[in-house]
Design brief:
Its EC number is 6.3.2.3. Pathway: Sulfur metabolism; glutathione biosynthesis; glutathione from L-cysteine and L-glutamate: step 2/2. It comes from Ensifer oleiphilus. There is one protein chain. The protein has 11 helices and 19 strands. It is an alpha+beta fold and about 350 residues long. The longest helix is centred in the C-terminal third of the chain and has 17 residues, at about 320-335.
Length: about 350
């Protein structure tokens, strides 16, 4: 099986990324892997879709650091490949990373991913589903029972009124974004710096105001779902608690959060079950849920990360289960002679 991983850039890939874990798991199972970035698609006049693929130059490293070094090396292999020769295109880019500096690149994965699926590649997560999830408005389509009370607006007076209605505090963040960037906790609409915060966040688009959940002081739980269901091996779930640094409202690892083991309760599994129907309908193969108490703060469908943290905590490499699931999708496609849609295959 040949798997192409679509990422924002080769330069920004690191040994700690979940994509690295997935690539190493694929190599260990005897598969070919390559990397593709937003500038690497070519649609030729004869309607063939080609990709400029970067792959390792004959090496099969086992350690993440060695793998990343080989991927970034000057002698890494570059080749132009017809997408019909790719079995799986795994979309692992973060559109928000490109939204400001390279807006042309933000939707490349979903757009060219759809063309790739039409030419025979299995594309996960399903590109048509991902096109619905270009920002956090996607979250509002899920059951209200699992969402914090939320306002989306660019009007400062609407936001002030929302803050006044939620005396326990409000979280302000951009509609488009990830990694905990520009996330603020507001205690009162009288805060002196509210206008500055509003200007900073609204500069890039709409704002989300969410009621603050007191349980968030202990961090949130990142739970992986695969094919619409919690990813689990034995009695260990692919999950961990992200604990914020002292005095920090964000629990993101990129924002100095730390990873700890998480207890997955029946209540958390019930939350995941409430989300399952839409995730399956949208072809979301691999998803990361960020859960606080009985609410989901975010649904990460583009680049859910954290598998290396889970492996460090539990000595379990869940990347192997994910690659096996891709192998199964390829077998199902062949058994059905290509008659199943990509969206159906994505969550089978």
């Amino acid at each position: 099986m040949r798997i192409a991983f679509f990422v924002n850039s080769i330069e920004l890939e690191t040994a700690s990324y979940t994509t690295t874990s997935l690539a190493l798991a694929a190599l260990s199972r005897g598969h070919e892997i390559c990397y593709v970035t937003p500038a690497d698609f070519i649609l030729r006049p004869d309607d063939r879709l080609m990709i400029r693929a970067r792959s390792l130059n004959g090496t099969k490293p086992k350690k993440p650091e060695t793998f990343i070094s080989a991927l970034k090396a000057d002698d890494a292999k570059m080749s132009v490949v017809d997408v019909s020769e790719i079995d799986v295109l795994f979309l692992r880019n973060d559109p928000s990373e490109d939204a400001e500096g390279r807006p042309w690149a933000a939707n490349v994965g979903a757009n060219f991913g759809r063309l790739a699926s039409e030419r025979g590649a299995i594309v996960v997560n399903d590109p048509s589903g991902l096109s619905l999830a270009q920002n956090k408005l996607y979250f509002q389509d899920f059951p209200q029972a699992v969402r914090p009370t939320t306002l989306i607006s660019k009007n400062i007076e609407e936001i002030r009124a929302f803050i006044d209605d939620h005396r326990g505090g409000v979280i302000l963040k951009p509609l488009q974004g990830s990694g905990g960037k520009n996330v603020f906790k507001i205690k009162s609409s009288d805060e002196a710096n509210l206008n500055q915060i509003f200007e900073a966040v609204s500069e890039v688009g709409y704002l989300i105001a969410q009621s603050y959940l007191p349980e968030a002081t202990a961090g949130d739980i990142r739970l992986f779902l695969m094919n619409g269901r919690p990813l689990v091996r034995g009695d260990v779930y692919a999950a961990f608690r992200r604990v914020p640094a002292k005095g920090e409202v964000r629990s993101n690892i990129h924002a100095s959060g730390t990873a700890e083991a998480a207890a997955i309760t029946p209540a958390i599994l019930a939350i995941a079950e409430k989300l399952r129907p839409k995730l399956i309908d949208d072809g979301m193969f691999l998803v990361g849920l960020d859960i606080v108490g009985d609410k989901v703060l975010e649904i990460n469908v583009f680049t859910p990360g954290g598998l290396p943290h889970i492996q460090a905590l539990h000595k379990i490499d869940f990347a192997e289960e994910i690659v096996i699931a891709l192998e199964n999708k390829l077998a199902i496609r062949e058994a059905y002679g290509g008659t199943l849609s990509n969206r159906a295959l994505a969550t089978l």
